[in-house]
Amino acid sequence: MDLTEGTLQEKTARAKKNIMWFAMLSMFMTFAGLTSAYIVSAERKDWIDDFVFPSSFYISLAVLILSSVLFYLFKRAIKSEERKKATFLLLATFVSAVVFVVLQFKGFGEIISQGFYPTGSAATVTTSFIYAIVFVHLLHIFGGLLVLTVVLIKHLKGKYTKENYLGIQLAEMYWHFVDVLWIYLFGFLLFM
User: Fold this and answer.
1) pLDDT 10s digits, 99-116
2) Backbone dihedral angles phi then psi of residue 123, each to the nearest 5 degrees
3) Which of 155, 171, 186, 187 is nearest to 68 (CA)?
4) What pLDDT, in 10s, does the model give residues 137-183?
5) Considering the entire predicted model, what is its pTM?
């Protein structure tokens, strides 16, 4: 399909989706750099091998996957014009995102209870990387919470219909991206 074809609305939607793809690619590159540096640094003599992965991170993985499923179901409810169901699903997505954030901070607490700190004399290169990777991902989750808030406000104002839901599509792209990103980071940190 020629990118210059279509109505102004279709062209605008394509442009916004392309911008989202570029944004996600740049976020991916950030984490590719962080995980590459992690791999290179793992060769250091002071690298910690006996680090115990926080149990809260396991639970947060399940919660974030649930949030993606809920958001997908929210979009389907919008497309089938089930507004009450859509509202419930979007609120459930938002709550699960907040639970994810709480679990991440609980995971930080578990790391600290093992005696590993992000900075200072008790900090190690290993835990500093883990804190940095998880914290940068949390920044993206906070961005996602902001996006979910905007979608919620627009939804409550009745802005989305089965014909007009570009904002939901863009939010869904971002939200699924940060979820898949956490699955990758979780697996990476667990097995590396």
Assistant:
1) 999 999 999 899 889 888
2) -80, 150
3) 171
4) 999 999 999 999 999 999 999 999 988 889 999 999 999 999 999 99
5) 0.87
